[in-house]
Amino acid sequence: MFGTYLRRELFNRRKQTIIISIGMALAIALVIVVNSVSAGVQSAQAAVLQSVYGVGTDISISEAAAAPTAGATPGQFAFGSGSGAASGGTTTLNQSRLETSRTVTAFDATQLDTVTATSGVSAATGTLALTNSTFSGQLPTQSGGTAGGTGGAPGSDTSQTPPTGGADGAGGSSFDVNSFTVLGLDPASVSVGPLSAVTLSDGRSLTATDAGTNVAVLDSSYATSASLATGGTIDIGGTTFTIVGLVASSGADSTTASNVYIPLDVAQTLSGNAGKLTNIFVTAASASDVDSLAATLKTALPTATVSTEADLASSVSGSLSTASSLVSNLGTWLSLIVLAAAFLIAVLFTISGVTRRTREFGTLKAIGWSNRRIVGQVAGESVIQGLIGGVIGIVVGLVGVLIVNLVAPTLSGSATSAAATGAGAGPGGGRGFGAAASAAVETTVTLQAPVTLAVIGLAVLLAVLGGLIAGSIGGWRASRLRPAEALRSVA
């Protein structure tokens, strides 16, 4: 009886059913698209942060960059008399320098002991971010000194006339300054920090037995641009290192956190930073305690900068940040407004239908229908209308998501953090003479909007909810009708 009456009423009131279903469908389709795009933006943001944070890293600790001291000349090479090999009026020079970048500050490694002793810390490791700069080339030999130069270029006697001429070596100079980033890390703790966010593409990674040895693992993109391979060698700070492996980013970024990875103790010794670190990476014992652990570490290390993944997410900039803001604000509010409008339309049309059916409901009550049965009948009709709209909305929403994925818009993003120092050096280092290493990870990702069962379930839930709201209000109004009203209507 219930099913037969329900089917007949829906068929007889096709116009009302169509309008309510279309309104519900548009609202649910928009909710599906917004939720899927939001999930895609979050995945893209995670790809940017993955270059800054390692997998399994919850907190990063660093020190703010210190102001340069008076009289300091960072980024200069110093050549004294007798430096290089002189021949035919030309001096051939070559010098490498391994040092911390001006964008980071090295701090005492004992802070790592403080971190590991803190309750709630599951694992922690320290790293030392460095830049290796190499000057090589030919300069004209000058009387009273080895060679002249400007702008921080080689030359211990700055009173001499700068070299002039072209790069042909005839009365001029020909030189090149290349740099690449180096990250010293504890080879026994690669499961936390930058190397936990990479995949091995050739050779092997660093192991605990590599401590104190001159071995290096290279970013595969940098190795290709510098024509280096596993089994070869690379000069770091004037010392030859054997390349034992190549790694690649496991995220959307084409590069990893550094161009070269070497054992921490070796990096500290070569750079003159014995007992120093630039970053500490921490894994919390419980994901739910990350914020409280970060607060505890800030108290224990008052001069340090303690950042969680949520902190870094707020620093993401570029078109990715714009998309995230758009989805979070406009998209969410638009979905809520359209959904509320669809519910309101369903309620109004249901109430309007009940009003037109005064005679019908009065008669039904006169022949013995209870208020509960009438409410159930009206609610059942509304739920079916909502489900029809839900099915249509799911189809339209999936088509919308498919269009987004086929268009595959690209988003650019960058996350600024001291932990990211060294990312993004170009071929051969790609940085100008004396330039500071950038602390921003630049990433371009393709937006892909995933569809999950949770989103489909949400759509069905909204469809049922909309039908129940409309049906409950309309049914309540119908249940208040009295049989006498039907008799007056007939008369």
From TrEMBL:
Residues 18-299 form the MacB-like periplasmic core domain. Residues 135-172 are annotated as: Disordered. One of its GO terms (molecular function) is transmembrane transporter activity. Keywords: Cell membrane, Membrane, Transmembrane, Transmembrane helix. Pfam families: FtsX, MacB_PCD. Residues 334-471 form the ABC3 transporter permease C-terminal domain. GO terms for cellular component: plasma membrane. Belongs to the ABC-4 integral membrane protein family. This is Uncharacterized protein. It comes from Subtercola boreus.
